């Protein structure tokens, strides 16, 4: 019984400590993430040009996309 | 065998503790039918009152209120501001009131934004982000349409051009209700 209690306490403490890692950025705290320089591509035109060159060199199309950083609005 | 039982029991307890922590940490979003919590916050842009004067939501009780959480860095908010301003002008101050809550960490950014794109309705400031927690804001912008009795009747998440048509309809319904 004592061992169960000790192990439970240890695991619960670990869970409590690790729960800090689950803290997410709330929607109204995305000010810094919404900055232009936080986006994957701060210059869409330049990114398009680079992609075009990449696709031409690699003779492949697509597969390089991902959603932007952005403010997470909408 | 006994050791396995100990580990399983312990894991179960720890799992329950973790679930409780997650549940306690999650904000509960207010929905239609909930009573709008009363609050007071300093105003950033009032045509008459001095900047920083505290204004309470209660002071607009009896009117249909459109409570809008916005920030200067939020693109859909920038779309919504002139549209909300037009709705405020359309329905007049006697029965309808737009009240905004700005959540910029630096209120000066909101002041700067409003000086470039002024609106006629009051924008309160909450740089610590306490009110979005109380209301359970899940996206930016989020708005709460509150009836004359202080009950939330619609939650509008995000904002796109054209949303005002549905909003206008809901506002008219609420204005006709409880006259």
Write a concise keyword list for the protein shown above.
heterodimer; A: 74 residues; mainly alpha; 43% helix; B: alpha/beta; five-stranded mixed beta sheet; two-stranded antiparallel sheet; 5 helices; 19% strand
Write the SSE topology.
The complex is a heterodimer of chains A (about 70) and B (about 180).
Chain A: H1 2-18, H2 44-58
Chain B: H1 2-25, E1 40-42, E2 54-56, E3 64-70, H2 75-95, E4 96-102, H3 107-116, E5 123-125, H4 130-135, E6 142-146, E7 152-157, H5 163-176
pLDDT < 50 stretches of chain A: none
- Which geometry of chain A do the CA atoms define? elongated
Q: Low-confidence stretches of chain B at least 5 residues in length (pLDDT < 50)?
A: none
The general outline of chain B is globular
* Proportion of beta-strand residues of chain B: 15-25%
What is the CA-based Rg of chain B, rounded?
20 Å
Largest sheet of chain A: none
Proportion in helices of chain B:
40-55%
Average of per-residue pLDDT values of chain B: 88
Greatest interface and its participating residue counts = A-B, 24 and 36 residues
Strand order of the largest sheet of chain B: 5-4-3-6-7
Structural class of chain B: alpha/beta
The topology string of helices and strands of chain A comes to HH
Computed Rg of chain A: 22 Å
Average of the residue pLDDT scores of chain A: 79
Counted by DSSP, the helix tally of chain B is 5
């Amino acid at each position: 019984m004592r061992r169960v209690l000790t192990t439970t306490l240890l695991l619960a403490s670990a869970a409590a400590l690790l729960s800090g890692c689950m803290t997410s950025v709330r929607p109204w705290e995305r000010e810094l993430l919404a900055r232009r320089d936080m986006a994957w591509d701060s210059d869409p035109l330049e990114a398009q040009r680079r992609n075009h060159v990449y696709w031409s060199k690699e003779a492949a199309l697509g597969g390089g996309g991902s959603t932007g950083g952005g403010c997470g609005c909408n | 065998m006994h050791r396995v039982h100990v580990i399983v029991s312990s894991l179960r307890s720890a799992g329950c503790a973790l679930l409780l922590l997650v549940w306690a940490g999650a904000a509960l979003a207010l929905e239609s039918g909930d009573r709008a919590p009363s609050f007071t916050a300093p105003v950033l842009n009032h045509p008459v009152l001095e900047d920083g004067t505290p204004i309470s939501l209660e002071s607009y009780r009896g009117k249909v209120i459109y409570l809008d959480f916005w920030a200067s860095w939020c693109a859909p908010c920038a779309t919504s501001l002139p549209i909300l301003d037009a709705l405020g002008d359309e329905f007049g101050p006697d029965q309808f009131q737009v009240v905004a809550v700005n959540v910029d960490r630096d209120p000066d950014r909101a002041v700067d934004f409003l000086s470039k794109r002024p609106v006629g309705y009051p924008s309160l400031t909450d740089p610590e982000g306490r009110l979005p927690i109380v209301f359970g804001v899940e996206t930016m912008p989020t708005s709460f349409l509150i009836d004359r009795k202080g009950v939330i009747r619609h939650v509008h998440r995000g904002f796109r051009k054209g949303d005002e048509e549905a909003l206008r309809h809901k506002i008219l319904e609420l204005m006709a209700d409880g006259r």
